Structure formats: structure tokens, C-alpha cells
Amino acid sequence: MKLWLLDADVIIKFLEIDVFDKLVSLHKIHVSSSVIDEVRFYRRSGKIPVNFREQYIDTGLIIEFTASVAEIQHVLQCLPKLKRESLHAGETESIAILVRDESLKMCTFDAAALRILPFLNVSDRAVPAEHLLNLSGLTLSSGNKLDAILSENYFRSKLDEGKKDFIYSFSGKDT
Amino acid sequence: MPISSLAERLRKARESAGLTIGEAASRLGFKNYQILSNIEKGEREVKVNELAVFARTYFCNMSSFLINDDEPFTAINLLWRKAPTEERKKEVEAYIKNRFEQYHILEKLLEIDNKSNHSLITIKQEDIRTNYQIDELCSKIGNMLNLGSKPALSLQKVMEQDLQIKVLFIKLSDFGSAASTVHQELGAAIVVNNEEAPWRINFTLAHELFHLITWNTFSTAEIEADHNLFGEIEKKADRFASTLLLPETAVRQELDKKIIEKQLPFSDIVDIARDFGVSTQALLYRMANLRLIPWDKANELTKSEELAMIDRRIRNDSPCEAPVSERFISLSAKCLRKGLISRGKFAEIIDIDRADIDEFLEYRGLTEMEGESVEIMVA
């Protein structure tokens, strides 16, 4: 799968639950330039520093994409005013690249980012983290429970909220 | 958007932040100012990751560079206790304005009416001419806000929650302890130096509350132009803060309990000040003001080494964590939980690393999960 990891949080989370390297070996992973600089460390039993660029980009394990200013502007123009304020610059760049490259399948558990997708007509290219892990054969041993924000239910509920936001946006409600 | 238009916006944003081209270039991480100069002339394209750094350095949103209707709010007019030097003022005020804008956006996202109720009553200049009138005003405000006998314990919450005054704690360093403003769109706001001792913060908040209550009584232009008037108003604000936080009846009652044969030990003075949430100095001046000790004695005691040492020892267990705006954090967490801001935006607003978000939420007793919904019967 040509996998697009939308933000630093999903990478940090996968590093924390120790599935990131396995995903790297199974999929063609792509990330945006802004996201690379945002992954500085993750927590397992303590704080573990990571030089993401050196470890994954320079070694060619992960591919880096950069958006243009015009692409970012296009994304922002598609969003109501308040929605524009809901994203961080790195996430905006990531979404701009997702819009550009239709072959990418995207993974995130960020509620605000998921709620943006219907505005850009890219909801069908988003994959819940739980689904991605199952698809990659990364299932939890019995007795362990997946973090609720990685679940398919959470993903679907946020995407549904985004669809409602999109519909309501035509009524002039700016959220 | 044509490159020249973006270049122009970047130049304006830099100027609004009070930065010279050289300073800005160095903060942006450019090797020399010529690169920035070329960007501002529209001769060099801007990369996306640079745009994010521009937004951070110039204290604005990236969208304000790219979208026509995302023009920044009008300038804020801060009333400083001790204004920064002209060359630093623009930069500090641009930073503060950006923080208040973020606060305002959180309110808008949560559909909270941000119209602050800072102007509790209409006050004319002749209403606050004498100390007696200020004391009367305090008693009225204390009752209106239900502040009780120890107002400091609830003042910040009441100001933030009930009056919807935006209170932010920012490192002001040399620029005094606080500043306040009333802005047409952003509402009433106070910025407090986060390096202040916790027991001084309540006094600062009460002092700034006076400025907000009397915002329309004196014009800021008038105050800034007239040094004597400024000094007079500052004295009134101090009187207001002292009387509000140390209500006469409550203070007398507490003192009566501790005074034995007209004697009050230093340690009890510190204890009482601590109970009322004010500095020992503030209590001493209030005692003088209530004619319990002479002013000379109050002045002498504020310089007493022994009292200062006891004060330090007793207050040693006071929290040393930098103060925070609970409401600002709570609104940010609510927006995150409801998917109204992303985790990246949350980290940016709270000023923490992305990897620290979960730990931060746990530490503050907050959560990102909404949980299940309960069906409510409609009557």
C-alpha cells in the first residue's frame, strides 16, 4: 500500500506501540517535510529520542513529499474560515499532498484532520489505524486492548462528524 | 496568489511584529538578510516549511499570508503597568495579540459568546475620586461577584468563567507585572507576568480588574499622555485591589483571633496574608490603611529582614509551577476532544511537544475521548 502518514502523532503512536518499523517494512510509506521535523521523540518506558530524517528519510526507508504554496492555498480555500484555524501548518501540508496524489492511502487518528477530509473529497482514501494494523498482521495478543483513538469506531465517528460539518457548511454555519 | 502579493503580506507581518529585516532573517534561520530581502521583493519563492516558520516568528496564522479574508484583527491597545521600550513594544504586543486571538478562536470554535462582562457598572471619574468611594466600589463589586470573605481564592476563576475576561500568563520579564486591554472583537483581556510569585498574582489580577472596570472612565490615550494621571489611576487600582482582596470585616476578624495583648507575631502576619492569598506586604499596607498600624511601621516592616525570612520559610511549600490560565487550557482541551482543533494545533497553542500531548492531558486530568453519550429525556 502506498501509505500516507498524515501527521507526527500517528508516527509517534506507532513508534510507541512498537509497530512502526514493521509497517515500514510492509508498506511504501510517505510523509510530508513538515511532519519529519515534528517527530523528535516518543515515549515507551521513558523518553526515546528519534532522528527521523537520519533514520528513515536519508536511508530511503520512507519517502518525503513537499507541497507547494499554491497547493496549501487551495486546501485553505476549500475550508470554512474556522476550519482553517483548526489545523497546524504541518497537517495542512500533509492534506495538500494527499489531495495532489490520488494514489496515496492515508492514516491518521486526528479528529480535526478527519473532520476536514469531506471538505476536500478525500474521505474514501483514509484508513483507520486499527484496520491498517489488522491488514498488516499486527494484531494484539489477547487481553490487550487497542488505544480507543486508534479504533475503527473512533475513526468512523469523526469522519461522520466531518460529513455533517460539510453539509452544514452550505447553510453558512462556520465550523 | 501572485508571488508579489505573498511577499507584500510577509513584509507587512514582519513590520507588525516590530522586527527589522536583519532580526527577522536571523530568527527565521536565514544565513543572511539578503534571502529575506529577496523574498519580500518577490524575487525568491517561499517554501511551505518556511511559511510555517514565518507564521511562528511573526506571531500570526499561516492562512493570513494566503487567504484574502484572513486579515488579522485590528491592533490591541494595551495599558501597561510598565510599558516596554518602543523597540520591543511592537514585538511583545504582537505576541500577546496572537495569544489572545488564539483564545478568541477557541471560544468561537466552541460557540461561546465572547462578550466579556468586564464593565460591570458604569463608573464616572467623580465616582472614584476618594479612597472612601473606591472602598464602596470594592464592596459593591465583591458582592456582585460573590467573592466571599477570602476573594483571592476565587478571583481568577470568577474573572475567567463569569466575566469571561481572557487571562493569560506570559513571560514579561522586564515589562512589569501585567497589562490589560479591551478590544472590540477580542473582548477584555489581561496578561500577567508568569514569573510573578503566586501570592502576588491575585493582587495583580484585582489591580487589572480595576482598569477593566474603569476602561471607559479614562481614555488610554489620556492616561498614556499624562504621567501624573497614570500615577493617580495606578494608586486607585492598588487601593481597589487591596480593599477587594482584604475585606475589612474579614481581615479584622482574622487579626482579632491572633492578636494577644495587642501583639501579633510575624509568623501570624505571614499566615494571615497567605490565607487571604496576598503578599505579606499587601497585608501590612492594608493594616495601615485600616489604622491598625501606623504607615511608618508598615513601611519599616516591609523592609524587615526577619519578617522576610519568616515569609520565605512559611511560603516555601507554595507551588513553584508557573501559573497558567485554566480556562485557556480547558478550552483548548475541549476543542481537541471535540475534533475542533488538531493535535498539532493543540501542541502549538499550549506550547508543548507533540509527543507530550498524552502526558500533558493526563497530568491535567483531561482527556481526548468524548465517551459514550447519554440519552436525555426532553420534558
Describe what this molecule looks like in 3D.
The complex is a heterodimer of chains A (175) and B (379). Helix content of chain A is 50%, strand content 14%. Chain A has 175 residues and is α/β, with parallel strands linked by helices. Chain A has a 5-stranded parallel sheet. The longest helix of chain A is centred in the C-terminal third of the chain and has 18 residues, at 152-169. Chain B contains 19 helices and 4 strands. In chain B, helix 8 packs across helix 9. Chain B starts with a helix and ends in a 16-residue tail after the last helix. In chain B, a hairpin with a 3-residue loop joins strand 3 (178-183) and strand 4. Chain B has 379 residues and is mostly helical. At the A-B interface, helix 1, helix 3, strand 3, helix 5 and helix 6 of A face helix 4, helix 6, helix 17, helix 18 and helix 19 of B.
SSE layout:
The complex is a heterodimer of chains A (175) and B (379).
Chain A: E1 2-5, H1 8-16, H2 20-26, E2 28-32, H3 33-38, E3 41-43, E4 47-49, H4 52-57, E5 62-65, H5 69-78, H6 81-86, H7 89-100, E6 105-107, H8 111-116, E7 126-127, H9 129-135, H10 152-169
Parallel strand pairs in A: 1-2, 1-6, 2-5, 6-7
Antiparallel strand pairs in A: 3-4
Helix pairs in contact in A: 5-7
Chain B: H1 3-16, H2 21-28, H3 33-40, H4 48-57, H5 63-66, E1 79-80, H6 86-109, H7 131-144, H8 152-162, E2 166-170, E3 178-183, E4 187-193, H9 198-213, H10 220-225, H11 227-245, H12 248-258, H13 266-276, H14 280-289, H15 295-302, H16 305-314, H17 326-337, H18 343-350, H19 357-363
Helix pairs in contact in B: 2-3, 6-17, 7-11, 8-9, 9-11, 13-14, 13-16, 14-15, 17-18
